[in-house]
Amino acid sequence: MNRTDRLYALVEELRAVAPRPRSARWLAHRFEVSVRTVERDISALQQSGTPVYAETGRTGGYCLDRAHTLPPVNFTPDEAVAMALALRRLAGTPFHAPAATALRKLVAAMHAGDAARARTLASRIHLVGGAPAVEMPRVVADALSTGRVLRISYANRSGTASRREIEPLAFVGSPTHWYLVAWCRLRESVRAFRTDRIGTVGVTAEVPPPRELAAGDLDIPEGLAQLSLA
């Protein structure tokens, strides 16, 4: 990485964690340079007018003045989670690490409330063997963020159709299918509905009562991984 690129990357790293500090040693390790080089780079940024300042003490380091950083990015929680899912498809490619850094910067720049909702939504998405390549109807994809009881028509594996009222709890994705995990009022238990077997979907005005989804409710093979925005 040349010096110009490193100076830009230093600012972006400090912006992502502002107002928390990063130590010179941490930054040196991150950019694979010496502590002295980091100190020279920070001095150059300060002389150019970049609002970087030093905090002393055991937990101190360099900070970027949050009042002079870019305003929060207006990404929605759904958009942040979509970025996290796209990132999973980059696993094993040279672009995975840069994309993960970009996602962390995105979440750090969001409004605090939106970032918290995005993390909650991500915690309810579980993957087995990577993110599926298949898509699902938009109204089904919005099931968790909508926070409403759904009325659906559903065909089981033999093709028998039924109508259900369900309370969405989570998504589970495999390389070939998405499943909507929900409390089924017809069966009075947790059920996993394969999204390509869901027919009509109606969103009601009813907000379901809070329900906790236990690990045992997800009757799927080992290798379950929770989606993360970290």
From TrEMBL:
Q: Which Gene3D superfamilies match?
A: Winged helix-like DNA-binding domain superfamily/Winged helix DNA-binding domain
| Residue span(s) of domain Helix-turn-helix type | 6-62
Sequence ranges assigned to domain WYL in this UniProt record: 138-201
Q: Please list every transmembrane segment annotated in the UniProt record, as residue ranges.
A: none
Task: Output the InterPro entries linked to this UniProt entry.
Answer: CBASS_pafABC_assoc_protein (IPR051534), HTH_11 (IPR013196), WH-like_DNA-bd_sf (IPR036388), WH_DNA-bd_sf (IPR036390), WYL_dom (IPR026881)
Species, as recorded:
Paractinoplanes rishiriensis
Name of the molecule in the record: Transcriptional regulator
PANTHER family linked to this entry: PROTEIN PAFB, PTHR34580
**Domain of life the protein comes from:** Bacteria
